[in-house]
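Attaching the record inline, Q. Sequence:
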Amino acid sequence: MQQQPETPVTPSPMPQLSPELPPHYPPKKSKLWLWITLAIVGVLAIVGIIITIIIVSNNSTSSADTTTSRQRATKPDKNNDNEEDKDNQQGSATKATKCLTSADFRRSGYTHVKDGYFVLENGKFNFRSILFKPDSTQYQRGTYNVEMAKLGMLYKFNTDKQFSIELVPNETGEGSKLALERADKIKHDLVSNGIPERKITVSEPMVATHDTSDDTANRRVTIYFVAPQKCSEK
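Structure, as predicted:
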């Protein structure tokens, strides 16, 4: 048998690659997700830094406040000391102003009174004597009613002052009954003019030392102001 010639093998054509992509490389991914990731990381980093700064700042402030409080607790407060000194000075001034003065008498109508008028002896100031008619509880002079009103005004203007009134009657030849009644008459008129009854005391009658030809000493009641001796103007 005659051998037939071999048919040459035709190679298969190469597959045509897409002209848009290089051979043997996968398609490229989008860079959008990369930028988003970087942005998120950056924001978180900034937030973390801000929070750290706030925490450190608060700790520093708390520490400073604690230190300041300790310093205030250990150091004397000069301002408080100055205020206490001022209070003490004001307290001393207040005590001084509680004394009755000559100026207080002038403001109440005793225009003739001069400075140094209010002089105490053993805590008493001999103000004046009120005369009565013989064998009577009526005033010798009508002007004594005006005197009672002026004393009431003196008290009204000086209710914060430290003083009281003592009435000392002189004993008459008939005994002490009439003398006490005369003192009670003055007390009643003083109360009527605004002086509290608790501010007025009536002492036991005194025996007057006088010439027997003059009985006026037996018909009088002496008004004393009683006050702390430190209030004396001399």
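The first strand starts at residue 124 and ends at 131. The domain at 102-231 is CATH 3.30.1330.60 (60s Ribosomal Protein L30; Chain: A;).

More tomorrow.
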